[in-house]
Amino acid sequence: MTGKKQLMIEPSWCKGCGICVAFCPREALELMNGKVHLKDADSCVLCGMCEMRCPDYAIYLKNAEE
Amino acid sequence: MPSDLIHEYMRIDHLPHIWCAGCGNGTIMRDVAVALDELITDPEFALTRDQVVIVSGIGCSSRAAGYMDFNSIHTTHGRAIAFATGIKLANPRLEVIVLTGDGDASAIGGNHLIHAARRNIGLTVICFDNLIYGMTGGQYSPVTPHGDKATTAPYGNVDRPFDVAKLAEGAGASYTARGDIYHVRETIDIIKQGIKHKGFSLIDVYSTCPTYYGRKNKKGEAVDMLKWQKENLIPVSKYYTLSEQAKEGKLVIGPLHHSNYPEYSAEYAKIIEACKEAKKGK
Amino acid sequence: MAKAVLMQGNEAVVEGAIAAGMRFFAGYPITPSTEIAEQCALRLPQEGGTFIQMEDEISSMAAVLGASAAGVKSMTATSGPGFSLKQENIGYGAMAEIPCVIVDVQRSGPSTGLPTSPSQADYMQARWGTHGDHPVIALSPSSVAETYTLIIRAFNLSEKYRTPVIFLMDEIVGHLREGVTLPRANDLVINQRKSSFKDGANKFAYFVPEGEYVPAMKPFGKGERYNITGLVHDRSGFPTNNSQEAATLCTRLMEKIDKNADDIIRVEEYQMDDADTAIICFGGTTRSAKHAVNEARAAGKKVGLFRPITVWPFPEKQLAKWLGQVKKLLVVEHNYGQMLLEVQRCAAGQAEIDFLGRINGTVITPADIAEKL
């Protein structure tokens, strides 16, 4: 798939471990009220590192809708 | 809604899973799903979803079987490999994957681990190795490092630990590898290789247990434990380029051992075939 | 009529099991059951089946459950010490409803006991050996010929009720050699596992239609992708802590045996029609008991024999039928009084109950029984 992607967050599945925040190469994420939050959408390069390391499947890339 | 991958290969009605915040088990379970997805969609390997059977024992790790949307069986403590042996021999066409933990596989199930390895039966055993018994609340396991603390080792662990991958290799496993939860792609790749390998495969994946092991041993939060993995677990391609001094305190991850010793169910099939021929000859 | 063959009890287990469709055996050597494993090693590959000698008794039981879940009729064989070791996984089989047959060729205990000497002291272990509460089907043969037909019945009940069945033999029958005329294959009734219900109910692995007790079972690899667990589960096969679901499951497990007791229970009634005294025994002990009955009859005494072939569930209704006519019950078994407890439970106050038991490695003889009569 080469189409445009978008970052998705499922807050109800996030346990707030902070792994995605710590290992985001662009420091685009933060924890807010114990849940992951996209702090800076512009710096996110949709690399998917957060999805790979999220133990709770709460953050992931999705093909953008048409 | 979760990602397409999770939606496809997990029983999402049963998610989110029961594991603690920062527990690496969810990451390993996802690695297994990615590995299976890549094999199922690889026309050359021709693996069908129905062929896959996920077998687990008891413990934190073993809850994974119930989450993964394949044929699945959550068995008794330590006995997953023995159940899996029966499944494989009853239908060798099945791709039998055992999800187990360090206590399940190397303590109560240690005998089954070494004998399945010795027979070289075609199972892929993935050990969620978190250095402790999590489900029962933080007791030391056979891989807990010497001197570390656990609820049953309040003065420090007197035992010497097993290296589960080396144990399996010593017992005859024809494929062994080590992964972790920081090096995700490398870990997915060894899981794929383990499944593709015809004989017995043991993949020891270092998980994290921040709740018990981390807290008891002042290893910090899950993030700190992953940072430790990043700095100290070195992919095999890089590890052997390091100087002896740089290797100090570091562990290698990736494929560790591989041989082509004949697989058990294929060898037994030859006996069945020979008996059939002998019958015809009569 | 097929020709008569000389056969050992342990050998009859294997030939009967193969006739029933058993194609997987996992076991561990233990006297006096070892011939069963040896014979399976020889015979199964000839039938396209698989034998494996596992690393221990526990893994043998586990492999049998795994093979059955993959759709193959499976069996293991052991003796007392090994039977103890298998118990946790037997309970798993009961909970997850995985058909299989466990042969226990009993020997003297406790512990390593008197290997190869006769005993019937695992009677209660067969019923209560595993933790938790669930019913058990156990059958016990008293001759080589009966071993052949009864092991087929063990498989049939196991498949029909989706439960492990204990085949409770003793050293007397296991090592006995006698001439038997085997039934022709065409005359055998062989149950196959019910693999689907009508009405599209297959989406629940443990779905049971109204008025039935046993869910259908599809093997792994046939497209259902269901889950099996030893945890309390709902009809979908997934763990639940819901107390109502727990009660539904545990009650159904009890009722599927209890409500079908008449179908499961078989007894032998020998010279009972006018008996005022009945010997109650099972398995190999029956041979001495029958001899004693014949001698007593020759001496003009009205002695009969009541033998549970299905030893669990205990045939209480079948025994109750004789209470009133029969004034005295003599329970004879190679232990210190195990089936005796069941007889007392069912017949206390309605007949005099006497007991002859022994554990010293020797067989209870007809003369021993005659003395008690």
Q: Would you kindly provide a written description of the structure presented here, covering whatever features stand out?
A:
The complex is a heterotrimer of chains A (66), B (282) and C (373). Chain A contains two helices and four strands. Chain A has 66 residues and is α+β, with helices and mostly antiparallel strands. Chain A has a domain at 18-61: Alpha-Beta Plaits, CATH 3.30.70.20. Chain A has a two-stranded antiparallel sheet with strand order 1-4. A two-stranded antiparallel ribbon of chain A has the order 2-3. Chain B has 282 residues and is of the alpha/beta class. Chain B has one domain (4-281): Rossmann fold (3-Layer(aba) Sandwich), CATH 3.40.50.970. In chain B, 42% of the residues lie in helices and 18% in strands. Chain B has 13 helices and ten strands. Chain B has helices spanning 4-9, 25-40, 64-67, 80-90, 102-108, 110-119, 164-171, 184-196, 210-216, 222-232, 236-239, 244-247, 264-281; strands spanning 52-56, 71-74, 95-101, 123-129, 132-133, 139-140, 175-180, 201-206, 233-235, 251-258. In chain B, the strands form two sheets. Chain B has an eight-stranded mixed beta sheet with strand order 2-1-3-4-8-7-10-9, with helices on both faces. Chain B is globular and about 70 Å long. Chain C is an alpha/beta fold and 373 residues long. Chain C has two domains: 4-187, Thiamin diphosphate (ThDP)-binding fold, Pyr/PP domains (Rossmann fold); 267-372, Rossmann fold. Chain C has 13 helices and 15 strands.
How would you describe this structure in keywords?
heterotrimer, A: 66 residues, alpha+beta, Alpha-Beta Plaits, two-stranded antiparallel ribbon, 2 helices, 4 strands, 15% helix, B: 282 residues, alpha/beta, Rossmann fold, eight-stranded mixed beta sheet, 13 helices, 10 strands
Topology:
The complex is a heterotrimer of chains A (66), B (282) and C (373).
Chain A: E1 5-9, H1 19-23, E2 29-32, E3 35-38, H2 49-53, E4 59-63
Chain B: H1 4-9, H2 25-40, E1 52-56, H3 64-67, E2 71-74, H4 80-90, E3 95-101, H5 102-108, H6 110-119, E4 123-129, E5 132-133, E6 139-140, H7 164-171, E7 175-180, H8 184-196, E8 201-206, H9 210-216, H10 222-232, E9 233-235, H11 236-239, H12 244-247, E10 251-258, H13 264-281
Parallel strand pairs in B: 1-2, 1-3, 3-4, 4-8, 7-8, 9-10
Antiparallel strand pairs in B: 5-6, 7-10
Helix pairs in contact in B: 2-8, 5-6, 6-7
Chain C: E1 4-8, H1 9-20, E2 24-27, H2 34-43, E3 50-53, H3 57-69, E4 74-78, H4 80-96, E5 100-106, H5 123-128, E6 137-139, H6 144-161, E7 164-170, H7 171-174, E8 177-181, E9 227-229, H8 243-258, H9 261-264, E10 267-270, E11 277-280, H10 285-298, E12 303-308, E13 310-312, H11 316-320, E14 328-333, H12 339-347, E15 352-357, H13 366-372
Parallel strand pairs in C: 2-3, 2-4, 4-5, 5-7, 6-7, 11-12, 11-14, 14-15
Antiparallel strand pairs in C: 1-8, 6-13, 10-12
Helix pairs in contact in C: 1-2, 1-6, 3-4, 10-13
